[in-house]
Design a protein that fits this description.
By secondary structure, this protein is of the alpha/beta class. About 25% of the residues lie in helices and about 15% in strands. The protein contains twelve helices and 19 strands. The protein has a 15-stranded mixed beta sheet with strand order 1-2-3-4-6-8-9-10-11-12-13-14-15-16-17, with no helix packed on it. Helix 9 links the parallel strand 16 and strand 17. The termini are far apart. The N terminus is likely disordered.
Length: about 450
């Protein structure tokens, strides 16, 4: 009975891909382990003798298979499933499958992928895999699959360019895919024809690859990725701010763009217009020394932390969140330029104090962070921060990460501990009333003296 269930289950979750995995893995037994709390199951290096342990994975929603060499199964006969097997596949609750450290013959993958149509698997992930050879995908023509999220991390395969005919056979399924990630896999291009197949894709992650400026326009061509909303291109070989702008200009629904960790150069004479739908823009760690003159017109979130900015003099009425930590700023940007702003991060810059006029405006924000700056604990410096902290909107780091850089007697002190006496910091509020009182006394004395002399003469 155990072996029968195992066969059915194997056909469902690995569809014969993982049968007989038996590579040695130091410190691990060749079996499956079920985590009841997380409803996940991890299988290492199954052999025919220990394969029955896969039964533990029946109640899991996430199943992982690690290790293996599937070349020997490329010629394995794979027949159509009978009704009892199909019913068994439909009764399983597995929603995500992760396959790692496996050499995957594409010919075998092409023959068994269609069996996933009988399951409820919505996410399929490959990690540190090698895809070998070329598959015959004609059996997938017009085939629906429940898989909505597909990811590849640190995989090796033939270049995507030239594989368009194979992908066209997967068009029906790819047209329903919503999330795709190909990361850390040395990708240099994404053919336009593939992008046109991904009609429902709303999230694309191409981080940690080798994409250059010239690869974007062909990838995001006319008609490609019409529903794309989130695009991650961080840690690639992009260098031209203008080139990226031109490259993504035909993505009508783009809302989130991550260009961080690319060394960008912004041409001030550029006239490129970003998609007006773009709301979230990550330009952190891009080596920029000024805020680009041309930003998306309706931008709500801008991250320019970890750059070389000396000033921020742009004005965006739609801006809600602005992240400027780890720059070279010596002053707080004028909050008046951002009437919708609710979050401002300025950690680890060179700001010495907060002007009184800005403190009042900063106090109206929901989240302000200014930790790690060389604060001058003069009355305006320490007083402004203490007043801001009193509003309850000063972010994480207060009070420990807010320390005085000057004057000498307070150097190293927490800003919160600096005494702010009225006589020291605002003597006018004390001296002025005293002066007025003395003046009134002097006038009263003069009047009394004048009346006394008048009476005495009389």
């Amino acid at each position: 009975m155990a072996r029968t269930v195992f066969r059915l289950f194997t056909m469902s979750v690995a569809v014969l891909l993982l049968l007989g995995l038996r590579v040695a893995a130091e410190g691990r037994r060749n079996r499956c382990f079920f985590n009841r709390t997380q409803e996940s199951c991890v299988c290492y290096n199954l052999s025919e003798e220990t394969a029955s342990s896969i039964i533990q994975c029946l109640p899991a929603t996430v199943v992982e298979f690690w290790g293996g060499d599937l070349e020997k199964y490329t010629a394995l006969p794979i027949r159509d499933l009978d009704d009892s097997v199909i019913d068994t596949l439909g009764s399983l609750i597995i929603q995500k499958i992760i396959i790692g450290n496996v050499l995957v013959p594409e010919m075998l993958l092409a023959r068994v992928l269609k069996f996933f149509s009988y399951t409820h698997v919505q996410e399929l992930a490959f990690e540190s895999c090698i895809f070998q050879g070329t598959g015959d995908w004609r059996d997938m023509e017009g085939q629906d699959l429940p898989i909505l999220s597909l990811s590849f991390h640190n995989v090796t395969s033939a270049p995507l360019t030239g594989s368009e005919p194979a992908f066209s056979s997967l068009g029906r399924w790819l047209g329903t895919l919503e999330e795709l990630a190909v990361t850390g896999s040395r990708v240099t291009s994404l053919p336009c024809a593939i992008g046109r197949l991904l009609r429902a894709l709303h999230s694309l992650n191409l981080a940690h690859n080798s994409l250059g400026d010239g690869s974007l326009a062909p990838a995001f061509c006319q008609g490609a990725l019409p529903q794309l909303q989130q695009l991650s291109l961080h840690h690639n070989n992009l260098s031209s701010y203008h080139g990226v702008c031109e490259g993504v200009g035909l993505l009508p629904q783009l809302r989130h763009l991550d260009l961080s960790h690319n060394q960008l150069v912004a041409d001030p004479s550029s006239s490129c217009q970003w998609p007006p739908s773009l709301l979230h823009f990550n330009l952190s760690n891009t080596g920029l020394d000024e805020v680009p003159a041309l930003l998306p017109p309706h931008l709500e979130v801008l991250d320019m932390s970890h750059n070389h900015l000396h000033a921020v003099d742009v004005s965006l009425s739609s801006m809600k969140k602005l992240f400027l930590s780890q720059n070279l700023l010596q002053a707080v940007p004028s909050i008046r330029n951002y009437p919708m702003l609710d979050t401002l991060h300025l950690d680890n810059n060179f700001i010495s104090e907060l002007p009184r006029a800005e403190v009042k405006l900063l106090g109206q924000l929901q989240d302000v962070a200014v930790a790690g700056n060389p604060f001058s604990c003069s009355c305006s410096g320490a007083g402004g921060l203490q007043a801001l902290a009193a509003t309850g909107h000063l972010g994480q780091g207060w009070p420990g990460d807010y320390r005085c850089h000057s004057p000498e007697q307070y150097q190293g002190w927490q800003v919160a501990q600096v005494p702010m006496s009225v006589l020291r910091c605002d003597p006018a509020t004390v001296v002025a009333p005293i002066c007025v009182a003395l003046a009134l006394l002097a006038v009263a004395g003069a009047v009394w003296l004048a009346r006394s002399r008048s009476c005495h003469r009389a």
